[in-house]
């Protein structure tokens, strides 16, 4: 299959041609840091290389596959700040997947800018539409280009050995040489690129896949339709429509037309199916929007961010509009805005009384409007921590109504006082303000009420009272108060009080320690409370490094808005990404039925007391790994991988089991180890697969992970496509497993 550079080859595409010829672009990091760099697209059609004119050999590279989008003009904070110096039509921004910062660039001419903008967009499109096989071939070609130091398009055995080391393969030299000779059809003692691809295919022949294939193939050459059906029914536990599905799989994955005409599947087609989304551990149907979205908001877990404006830590980190964009594109549906009086009359957003930088409130609201509904149509909750005086609060209300217009929900849907919260479906495309309110929805109160302080502000005020003993309680602006409808912030006075007096539109915030304590002491009451009202939890004020708490403890008692520091990668965000990956990644997940019934007796501490208690047994045979990334880039280093499976759920379900490590093989390690678990509350359990590089002297290094809800697992022979620490795909790295799920008797 053609590489992107062949597809958009020099003779066909002037933009790609210009990128390959190279351009001098100005890289802008701030108003004072803007330096010229020479950029060009390398021959592989995927790698962008750049260096300073002066730096000797030093250069940087990145792959087009890391770029998510190209923004034209002054579409970043940095380019906006230098707008007077650089005309918009020369400026563009490369936006990367995940948490990597943007690259702001200025071209020397309009033609140059357009060539790079259009060229990168074409290459992104091509990279996104490659199928699995093309992606793998491209990956192999990339390695060939990296290893072919003298650029003669050939590789001798010495170079091949070096390349295998780079690819994380430790191999018996004799065996490697034997394969090399098999691929060297021209007997020239060197491999050209196509011969190298062939060599790589022989190298990666998957014995463990071949064995499964042999178990079901009558002639050892192909699977006839009924043999493939038998495999799907027996191993993949597909009962319904297995004939239809077998036909679809042959149509989609069988590369040989001859075999396809026989209604059969070859070993190559079988391996392609197992490595595809159909053969993935995640049930493909559950990646789509599949849940009932017409229930009250309180019946859903809602993807939520804490101090959304921060890109780094809580004390001196940068406040940025990009942080809102990144959270929203990850499917976040509840963002936080901390507002303070600005010195020039304009309210600002930052982490008060710290050295974090400030951004304008009105810019934050414009950003939410522009990016809020790209990843999901379902409602956004703007959680307002309001530290402003009356004057700037009124200005905030004006900004909200003028910028958001009809997007802002400022009255109840039917003009009536609600007995239950509206649904995500009814609020599609709407933005809700969560803040304090004068009085309720029942009647209007005239006086300017002194506001009740939320837990989070209370913590801030305790901290401030050391410096400002005469702290005054702030007044609440009527204009701002009137914009609050379904999310009125109130102080929590206990479950008994809430049961007797609380309204469905009243909601409280709980620190992580308070929520955990309530969960332990009164789990059932907390679950009942959360069937009718929203509750928000947030990280301890001591987490100044922006670390996170485990969200599972909060989901176990039905808390909907579990706010995490989205900017901090790690286990907690893996769990959040894992839970919200299903249902179209729309940011709303319907809670299990026993968490939606107001009279529920469910208690996470005692799952066996649930009326329809049905524990499951989960057995995972970890068979092998494929092309694991190198952790240490030192030339001779190769990983010693192990796999750990972790279960997160109700306290009784928390468990970890791991395989032993394999020495010196990140390329195709085989474990064949079986790990067993009992899951008491399957509806709440998340399963996390972690691969680490074993180190007996210090902590193991992280290699990759994948997390998903237990209810989304497809049993049978499956591939798990690993993600980086940042939650990004790292193809073609994967694990091959065989999963069986049964009732626990």
From TrEMBL:
| Catalytic reaction(s) noted | a 1,2-diacyl-sn-glycero-3-phospho-(1D-myo-inositol) + H2O = 1D-myo-inositol 1-phosphate + a 1,2-diacyl-sn-glycerol + H(+); a 1,2-diacyl-sn-glycero-3-phospho-(1D-myo-inositol-4,5-bisphosphate) + H2O = 1D-myo-inositol 1,4,5-trisphosphate + a 1,2-diacyl-sn-glycerol + H(+)
- Annotated Ca(2+) 5 binding lies at 693-695
For the ligand (Ca(2+) 3), the binding residues are 307, 336, 338, 385
Active site positions, chain numbering: 306, 351
GO BP, one example?
A: lipid catabolic process
Q: Which Pfam families match?
A: C2, EF-hand_1, EF-hand_like, PH, PI-PLC-X, PI-PLC-Y
Which sites bind substrate?
A: 434, 436, 509, 536
The residue ranges of the PI-PLC Y-box domain are: 480-596
Carbohydrate attachment residues: 186
What is the protein name for this chain? Phosphoinositide phospholipase C
